[in-house]
Amino acid sequence: MYDIIIIGGGPIGLACGLEAKKAGLTYCILEKGCLVNSLYNYPYNMTFFSTSERLEIGGIPFVSISVKPTRNEALEYYRRVTLSNDLTVHLQEKVTDIIPVNGTYKVTTAKASYQARYIIIATGFYDVPVLMNIPGEDLPKVTHYYKEPHFYAMHKVVVVGANNSAVDAALETYRKGAEVTMVVRENAIGKRVKYWVKPDIENRIAEGSIRAYFNSTLVAIHEHSVDIQTPDGPVSIPNDYVIAATGYQPQFDFLRRVGIRLSDDEKLKPEYNAVTMESNQPGIYLAGVVCGGMDTHTWFIENSREHAFIIINDIMGKENVAI
């Protein structure tokens, strides 16, 4: 029996654990993958948009070599924070259900069952890719998770999308010798692309080093080619691999199963009190990126790490009332 079960061992879940420990509450963090699983699955060479101090949790300094920390530095930081603070984390343990039981919640995983008075869901959004729903998307040549460029050297690569993930994949594979084509729904590279990268991709497109079809969509993927619908009509080009940087979404099925209401528009925003972060289910709180629904660019580590303090403060208020 714990005071709190925290679902998700990413930066925000860890931040919640730190605040719970400071408050003297018993807690357990359950993570279905490795520690900070989403960050682990980021591209190997990724550099954060944020500075290191904005990625800190629990007031613990994050020292990086450069102003913008890398994926590897972030993995090292969050691992050291977890170990040095002796946080209670159970890894490789996926939560399958949360059931109300006499004013508490029973949390079931593939390995065990737990009970807690409060639940914090901090599951992020990186685990479920937004599918294109086109023929051939299930072919082995297609990936929604780009890792590193060497694999694509000397191949014909199509990159779908125009935001940070797509731009990084296009530039890195191009520089390893891939023949890169970008397929972009909009009429330009995304406005959210990192400011030090945006001129690079725009210049590579302008000079013809990277081909780009704007106002276009990928409509079919074949074993050795792809079909693109462009403003000038359909185009078919030779292709070896497709990197679909089409974005990701929270685990909506899990949220619905828990009983959390989602907005009835395309955003599918979960219902919660913005002052306390408590959802429509009493005692179940939401923290981090999961709060944004499909609008995944609303919350980041730097502006949602405060959710940990807000939630624990609200729980302590309830405990004081109960006492």
CATH class of the largest domain: Alpha Beta
Shape summary:
elongated
Written as H for each helix and E for each strand, in order along the chain, the element string is EHEHHEEEEEEEHEHEEEEEEHEHH
Helix content: 10-25%
Going by CATH, the architecture of the largest domain would be 3-Layer(bba) Sandwich
What does the main sheet amount to? 7 strands, mixed
* Low-pLDDT segments, ≥5 res: none
CATH homologous superfamily label of the largest domain: FAD/NAD(P)-binding domain
Structurally, the number of domains stands at 2
Q: Which band does the percent of strand residues land in?
A: 15-25%
Instruction: Count every helix, treating DSSP H or I runs of 4 or more residues as helices.
Output: 8
Structural category: alpha/beta
**What number is the mean pLDDT?**
95
How many DSSP E strands? Answer: 17
What is the fold named in CATH at topology level of the largest domain?
A: FAD/NAD(P)-binding domain
Q: Could you give the distance between the termini?
A: 18 Å
